[in-house]
């Protein structure tokens, strides 16, 4: 029998320790580089934080595999067995430019099923955490299940990129959603946007390209409060590649999908 309490205790301990290291790094100079394009940033702290988790996990749970954004973990062929899915800094651009609005995202999956989800807002020292079937928490406070909110009172997290000319979606599909709701926000960290949905601070989140490490922990948290997460086509997420993302309170997922997203 897997001791999930033990794995959760280690994961929480490590994420807080990693957060402390990131807070300490504000005193020293960051090394910032670009990855796929000049706006796709990575810093020494992204890599050092991922390496920190890898060393701890290998030492403590040698049979577990690790999928990390910076690629320092394993090359995954499948999600069989126990897999840690880690984004050492989600919202790297915010980390570099603002030193806030970023998070560490850590999830533990067993045979493709999310068992532990942790999102740590390092600057606010706020840990969003969930274990499958045991509810979601913000630090020690239990988070209530998501109730209904009418469309006209909803706040939608969406980046302006997706409602202007772009390569991934016709903006004409999303503009009517923006017009129908109360307001929009964009925080620049998918993990925090998912955590804000879990806590009811936003009601819908739409984005065109996230990787498994951006959403793996958020999915575990969302499942505990009844949030619905699919691709924009209404399909289940694939944890081995990039996905479009449509997350919402249950009533809003249904209504927005039917009115605006479903192929007629
Ligand atoms: P990151 O900071 O870990 O790269 C920004 O809107 C959000 O989208 C962040 O959570 C960011 O994660 C993520 N993101 C940015 N570029 C991405 C890409 N090319 N593929 C997947 N996710 C990306
Ligand atoms: Ca990242």
TrEMBL record:
GO molecular-function terms, A-Z: inositol monophosphate 1-phosphatase activity; metal ion binding
GO BP, one annotated term: inositol metabolic process
Record keyword Hydrolase present: yes
Catalytic activity: a myo-inositol phosphate + H2O = myo-inositol + phosphate
Highest taxon listed in the record's lineage: Bacteria
Cofactors: Mg(2+)
Keywords annotated in UniProt: Hydrolase, Magnesium, Metal-binding
Name by which UniProt lists this protein: inositol-phosphate phosphatase
UniProt source species: Bacillus timonensis
